[in-house]
Amino acid sequence: MAEDIPVEDYPTEIEEQLTGFESSVGTVNNMVQTILSMPRNELVQKLDPLEQAKLDLMSAYSLNSLFWMYLVTQGINPKEHAIKQELERIRTYMNRVKEITDRRKAARLNKAAMSRFLRNALWKLEEGRSKDTPGCAPQDTPGCAPQDTPGRTPQDTPGRAPQHTPGRGHRTPGRGHHTPGRGQHKSVDGHQSKGPKLS
Predict the structure, then answer these.
(1) Is 195 inside a domain boundary?
(2) Distances (CA, A) of 149 to 129, 155, 157, 172, 190
(3) CB-CB contact of 136 with 130 (8 Å)
(4) Taking CA atoms, which of 134, 138, 158, 171 is between 20 and 30 Å from 119?
């Protein structure tokens, strides 16, 4: 009778493969235990539809992966088994879910980036206006009137003569003018005299 070979004895050339196999079994086992630790109905109620799809796909992939490993331990090539097509189908749906998740993240990132871009652009625009407009404070809006310049009255406009206010600086007819017939007399010979001579 052949002597029994101890279980711990195995060819050293397959040590790396056995170590990887043990690690994979432990990972899948942890995933299955996480799924089974809570009733599915209670778990699904806390998830949105996209998260529910992720949960179902992870469950299916974990169970099919365990079956793949079982076939390996039985000496059956899983690549020639129907399990291969099943795992590929699950991976296809997992990639679709990943694409949807990435699009959602990209939309949120683009919205935040656009908000920052608009905020910076408006700040630079206001800063440029405050520099280009003399006499305006940074908070002034376009169209603000420039402040008065020393030596100029507010109503003075370059290229235009100052306007006179009616009633100021104009001479009224009859004031300061000599009216014909007042204070002057004509003599018989046609010469003007400054007035009658008093004897």
Answers:
(1) no
(2) 20, 11, 11, 35, 61
(3) yes
(4) 134
